[in-house]
Amino acid sequence: MRELDEINLTLDEAESIRLADLQNFYHEDAAKQMGISRATFGRILQSAHKKVADALINGKAVRVEGGNVTLDNVKHFVCLGCKYLWKTTLKKKLPTECPSCGKQNLIRVSNHPLSSTDAP
Fold this sequence. Notes:
The protein contains 3 helices and 5 strands; from the N terminus they run βαααββββ.
């Protein structure tokens, strides 16, 4: 890897690819998730795609960098019974039942733009 040319992908570019291409978010929803406008999201994603294509086609290494990151330790859950979606922090005990219907049929899901409610 040391001998390869590199392209630098910013954290915002990497996040835009994750949301749009890996998580299949609509651009408007991904932009909300990142706290930016839809147009700005589109420009960031276009830049990211160009850089990744350059790396793939020309055999370059990809370096992701761009500042300090703070993780919020938020986990998202959905109830398979009533489809209730919520989030909780790692400081709280992991849920064993749905705060909406009380069922114990829960799964942890990736960060999702619709999970705006907090478990009690």
